[in-house]
Design brief:
The chain is α+β, with helices and mostly antiparallel strands and about 270 residues long. It has helices at about 10-30, 40-55, 125-145, 150-165; strands spanning about 55, 75-80, 80-85, 95-105, 110-120, 170, 175, 185-190, 205-210, 210-215, 220, 230, 235-240, 240-245, 250. It has a single domain, classed as Creatine Amidinohydrolase (Alpha-Beta Complex). The strands form five sheets. Strands 1, 2, 4 and 5 form a four-stranded antiparallel β-sheet that branches. It has a three-stranded antiparallel β-sheet with strand order 3-12-11, with no helix packed on it. Helix 1 (about 10-30) packs across helix 2 (about 40-55) and helix 3 (about 125-145) packs antiparallel against helix 4 (about 150-165). The protein starts with 7 loop residues before the first helix and ends in a 22-residue tail after the last strand.
């Protein structure tokens, strides 16, 4: 399937969706603390999307081929959960780390997909470093986005930074094209060789969402059909932004008042909408 080039109307719709997706994460931030359950965080996010924003949670009842319908509005992946953690009765405690992954669908049908890491109380040094390196990995990948670059350029810089830190890159899951469809071409791998893969063109929109493990990269799938954990039970971290390829570089679409700034390792070069 060809990679879609978004129209100016699509791009404007995706800017709105991206901002709304980021604002859900802003909203939930003060609630992410010791003693809260992942199910309560899901309920709060769901109610905010539906009642305040007028958006729909894309994960709820999402069922790609071979998967049961996802039963919740957001994904909450705690500690050794790599991705697709199902919110429930798990109580977050001091020292935990959690990724909250939010995708909204606007009234015009556009998807806004992003995730952030949260520390519960005081994290361990390992958890803090893994989270910071993963954030740098995402931003190093973003910094490679421009017309004429290749998807392999993104994967290579992420893999290099993670492995240089002694960590591993999950290979079974990747970033993806997005628009009025939740997951579309291209697949954005978080490992690879420079100059390989699809060439980037202005108007493409996709996510960059590296999953980095403190230990080995192997995964295990839980019986619920969704939750993915590290096989060796090591910690895992993930960050996600939604990126537009512009005529001169990139624009991060999932930004809001509470979005963390780019790390010092990258000098931001994003184009600013007039």
């Amino acid at each position: 399937m060809a990679i879609s080039i978004k129209t100016p109307e699509d791009i404007e719709g995706m800017r709105i969706a991206g901002r709304l997706g980021a604002e859900v994460l802003d909203y939930i931030t003060p609630f992410v603390k010791p003693g809260v359950t992942t199910g309560e965080l899901d309920r709060l996010c769901h109610e905010y999307m539906v009642n305040v924003q007028g958006t729909v949670p894309a994960p709820l009842n999402y069922a790609p081929p071979g998967y049961p319908p996802f039963p919740k509005a957001v994904c909450t992946s705690v500690n050794d959960v790599i991705c697709h953690g199902i919110p429930g009765d798990k109580v977050l405690k001091n020292g935990d780390v959690v990724n909250i992954d939010v995708t909204v669908i606007t009234k015009d049908g556009y998807h806004g997909d992003n995730s952030r890491m949260f520390f519960i109380g005081e994290p361990s040094k390992l958890a803090r470093r893994l989270t910071e390196i993963t954030y740098e990995c995402m931003w190093l990948g973003i910094s490679k986005v421009k017309p004429g670059a290749h998807l392999g350029d993104i994967g290579h810089v992420i893999q290099q930074h993670a492995e240089n830190a002694g960590y591993s890159v999950v290979r079974e899951f990747c970033g993806h094209g997005i628009g009025k469809v939740f997951h579309e071409e291209p697949q954005v791998l978080h490992y690879g060789r420079p100059g390989t893969g699809e060439e980037l063109k202005a108007g493409m929109i996709f996510t960059i969402e590296p999953m980095i493990n403190a230990g080995r990269r192997e995964i295990r799938e839980m019986p619920d059909g969704w939750t993915i954990k590290t096989k060796d039970r090591s910690l895992s971290a993930q960050w996600e932004h939604m990126i537009l390829v512009t005529e001169t570089g990139y624009e991060v679409l999932t930004t809001s008042a509470g979005t963390p700034p780019p790390p010092a390792i990258v000098q931001p070069k994003e184009s600013v909408a007039a």
